[in-house]
């Protein structure tokens, strides 16, 4: 169990360091062009994925904090119950680290700092961050594990 908590903790640290660097060194709304398809930006997302509920009046901050806390408890319980499934536990540790990283932002600032901006010509993927990346990788690993083992997560 300890190694999965350490992995999650390292993800949180990496996420917070990168977001703090963006917050301190890049003006809100500005961008650094890295490659023809990648920019580093400073966006502040008060909503959830793809800015869901970002235009709400402020209640969404507390709603997403509660949802994150519930998810964190469930993920820790799942890791504890599935220790004999290392790939699943690694995936859950990735999601746990990402959830805690975004929870820290939402709790401290009231928004999540997004800074990775991928695009092709005029087509832009919504900006995201390290926490979001690990959450996405974790979900992909859970799906891979479920198909590989033909076993549902919550069975």
UniProtKB/TrEMBL annotation:
Family: Belongs to the peptidase A8 family.
Topology of this chain in the membrane: Multi-pass membrane protein
Function: This protein specifically catalyzes the removal of signal peptides from prolipoproteins.
Residue runs in coiled coils: none
Annotated pathway: Protein modification; lipoprotein biosynthesis (signal peptide cleavage)
Active site residues according to the UniProt entry: 114, 132
UniProt-recorded Gene Ontology molecular function terms: aspartic-type endopeptidase activity
NCBIfam families reported in the protein's UniProt record: lspA
Keywords: Aspartyl protease, Cell membrane, Hydrolase, Membrane, Protease, Transmembrane, Transmembrane helix
Domain of life: Bacteria
EC number: 3.4.23.36
InterPro entries to which the protein is assigned, alphabetical: Peptidase_A8
Protein name, entry field: Lipoprotein signal peptidase
Compartment(s) of residence: Cell membrane
Transmembrane segments annotated in the record for this chain: 62-79, 86-103, 123-144
Pfam family, one: Peptidase_A8
Keyword Transmembrane among record annotations: yes
Catalytic activity: Release of signal peptides from bacterial membrane prolipoproteins. Hydrolyzes -Xaa-Yaa-Zaa-|-(S,diacylglyceryl)Cys-, in which Xaa is hydrophobic (preferably Leu), and Yaa (Ala or Ser) and Zaa (Gly or Ala) have small, neutral side chains
